[in-house]
């Protein structure tokens, strides 16, 4: 696999700094039941990295110490971590808003038959990846059968109340472009999704459009196809300065499966650590005694992926 980091470090991206820490985004491991081209963490069924119970208990300590408001769980498939349900349950007891970044097909996996009930019981917001409402596009990007299993997963969540008005159970969908292009208008695409999925009797709250980052599996594919520099020009030419105020790294810290800290999930995959004073490799335990507010954010050229066009974050477009 081609490394994109050497191509990203010489950057003219504007220097930015942290605001108040509001969200802890935790990668519970790289194991997944899918292996998608655009996946920036190289997740797959073959990966074995998983966060252990001691590190998860440390997360709960940091949440209390730093008054974290949102716990954003990702992977891989976060539900495959054996301590996933323990963490969700304990965070819910603290009144924390929990987000599960779910790929929908996980709901069809053996051992996950009651997952939808568990998520609903703990009022977990589900952010579900569904790259298109058309079967041929989803299966082309994610593998044969993924579309049908995704639809079954979404119907299961709907049956518990997810996505329905006044249920209090939030189901948001995520769209990633299939190739080296920027996402289309989030609002227009959301309208299309609601119309097409509505024909199948399905509902959801919002659609999030997220720009593909030129790193890991997707970045390597760009290099192999000779499209890397062209894609970077696209991102840079579409840069919008106004988007700098809303990028997620200002109020979020990303935690890897070992408890190490990064400014965002993308920096985590590039090995660009959070620049915490007096710590070569910042770790969760450092957050017990150090407030990261005001610290500079580690930047490189991939950051243009968050400010290009309508902007991109884990909560979708910034505009």
What about the largest sheet? 8 strands, mixed
Number of strands: 8
Q: Going across the biggest sheet, name each strand in turn.
A: 6-5-4-3-2-1-7-8
How far do the termini sit from each other? 34 Å
Structural class by helix and strand composition: alpha/beta
The average pLDDT score comes to 92
Q: What are the secondary-structure elements, in order, as H or E?
A: HEHEHEHEHHEHEHHEEHHH
The H-level CATH homologous superfamily, spelled out, is Aldolase class I
CATH architecture: Alpha-Beta Barrel
CATH topology: TIM Barrel
Gross morphology: globular
> According to CATH, what is the class?
Alpha Beta
Number of structural domains: 1
Level of helix content? Answer: 25-40%
Number of helices: 12
List unreliable stretches of 5+ residues: none
- Strand content is 5-15%
**Gyration radius over CA:** 19 Å
Key features?
single chain; 319 residues; alpha/beta; TIM Barrel; 8-stranded mixed sheet; 12 helices; 8 strands
Describe the structure.
The structure is a single chain. With 319 residues, this protein is an alpha/beta fold. The protein has one domain: Alpha-Beta Barrel (TIM Barrel), CATH 3.20.20. The protein is 32% helix and 11% strand. The longest helix has 14 residues. The protein is globular and about 50 Å long. The two termini are 34 Å apart.
